[in-house]
Amino acid sequence: MDHNEYKTYLKHQYFHEIRSLQSVNDVISAFQKKIDIVETGLSESEAIFLKMTALNYINAHNNGLIKPNLDNLNFVPYEIVRNEKSDHYYNLMREATSDDERIIVIIESQLNEITSNCQELKVDLIIERGIDTSHVNQETPEFFTYLMLFDN
């Protein structure tokens, strides 16, 4: 399948799945209805994940309207409570790492960014967050990247 065929396939297969862009706080609220999520502090190793995330956000938003730096970012970490509701994510996490680490979600509401140390959950969070309609209307690369999340 060539590139254009794949784009056509993605639109046909997943267009009905597209969600309008929501705030990261709305995404957290939606996930709190599905799994148990609580605001938390970070361990030393999780703090390293946060620092890497902050640097990524600063680099990604360097040309945007908001000029982020480490001093003006407001990260809020959440823990996914380990129970039967979250077993799916913890089982996948256990396959990917040798540690028995907890799953965290980190939001930054000023940039409307959300991430997790569990790749599968991160994808689900991005799908739930949605995409700006301008990307959909213009069929931007971000639009096709979003559709590819469903395909993976």
TrEMBL record:
It comes from the Bacteria. This is Uncharacterized protein.
